[in-house]
Amino acid sequence: GSITTADGSALVKLGNTTVICGVKAELAAPAVDSANKGYIVPNVELPSLCAERFRSGPPGEEAQAASQFIADVIENSQMIVKEDLCIANGKLAWVLYCDIICLDYDGNLLDASVFALLAALKNVQLPLVTINEESGLSEVNLKQKNPLIIRKHPVATSFAIFDDTLLIVDPTAEEEDLATGTVTIVTDEEGRLCSVHKPGGSPLTGAKLQDCITRAITRHKEVKKLIDKVIKSITPK
Amino acid sequence: SVCPGDTSVLAGLYGPAEAKISKELPDRAALEVLLRPKVGLPGVLERSREQLLRQTCEAVLLGVLHPRTAISLVLQVLSDAGSLLSCCLNAACMALLDAGLPLAALFCGVTCALQPDGTILLDPTARQEQEARAILTFAIASSNRKVLMATTKGSCSVEEMQQCLAAAQCAASTIFQFYRDSVRRRYSKC
């Protein structure tokens, strides 16, 4: 991956928007009420270097809303099932910290973040962990690494709405600022909707929304092909 | 305050008032939404809900009539028994109505739950939400029943989403009638 110290990482450029995602895996005890589930913790950061509107300090509303959106996409699409992250029921499970950092903001943050997350998770190699029966301690075998089981491949497509009629796919920052609303559709490979995210903005008819969804499904196929091609090209000897 | 079933949200609207120089916008009113959960401090989920509510309200509010002012909408969750987001949307709209702010249209929030067997349930309880395969929340505008806001939890097929949307648009009429009745009742006393 792009970050050598991370367990998995990916850098995505959508036009000028650049987003890097790094996944670090750590071990933790699972929660008491879900003893067979691990954790996935996404965090989207918009540092002040990506655009002049973001100041340094605590995360602003846009970063927090984006983090929540990514968490929802992971949950809704079931791309990683938390049960797969469990090593020993009630004792040990993986925690995947997914840090998504925007390096250059030129609009369409959500699409780029979802792609980066998907590519980074496909890139993750987790070492094999076994629990020693006698001592009760965990043994990490760094020589033997397995990729994550990714069940679904969600792809996000964003549209900018202008005055109830015009829809522009993959808006730049300038188009987003002038738009009267945005819509983000996340689909998976079976054509099912993982998320329809329309945070306010000018109203849309059901037919227009249907139009967006059909385009999103078409785009999904292209993006999936690209991700597969890239992952195959970097598969180690 | 709005209470469908056992979910209850209290909304307070302050404005248009003088805005801080850092927050004022030169051509329109600056709307700020604060959502306070029943227990705990507001977290990332509240922030994302605040963004949804703020942009929905901004779409209907005629902010250009009050430039360089600040409008603050504070929502306090009193109890949560399912369909919380649509309850907040309804509370926000009624607060905007009650304050007498200029609006282009009214909006209402409707939650649809898709059961595992395919039936659509409107305004589900917390129990029904947990069992449901997918939960879709829509904000429908009163002028032309168009979709102002949409958010989904869980995955569903495209046809199912369209069915839920149609059901939500029908239900919206009932909610708008409720708005009318409440406002009529309020102003018939004085």
Approximately how much helix is present in the residues of chain A?
25-40%
Note the total helix count of chain B: 4
- The succession of helices and strands of chain A, N to C, reads EEEHEEHEEEEHEEH
- Report how far the terminal alpha carbons of chain B are from each other: 20 Å
Distance, first to last CA of chain A: 14 Å
Q: Which protein chains make the most extensive interface, counting residues with beta carbons within 8 Å of the other chain's beta carbons?
A: A-B, 38 and 39 residues
CATH superfamily membership of chain B? GHMP Kinase, N-terminal domain
Outline the biggest β-sheet of chain A: 5 strands, mixed
The count of strands of chain A amounts to 11
What count of helical segments of chain A does DSSP give?
Answer: 4
Looking at the overall shape, the CATH architecture of chain B is 2-Layer Sandwich
List unreliable stretches of 5+ residues of chain B: none
Major β-sheet annotation of chain B: 4 strands, antiparallel
Globally, the shape of chain B reads globular
The second-level CATH architecture of chain A is: 2-Layer Sandwich
Radius of gyration from the alpha-carbon trace of chain B, in angstroms: 17 Å
GO cellular component, one term (chain A): nuclear exosome (RNase complex)
Keywords (chain A): Cytoplasm, Exosome, Nucleus, RNA-binding, rRNA processing
Protein name (chain A): Ribosomal RNA-processing protein 43
GO molecular function, one term (chain A): mRNA 3'-UTR AU-rich region binding
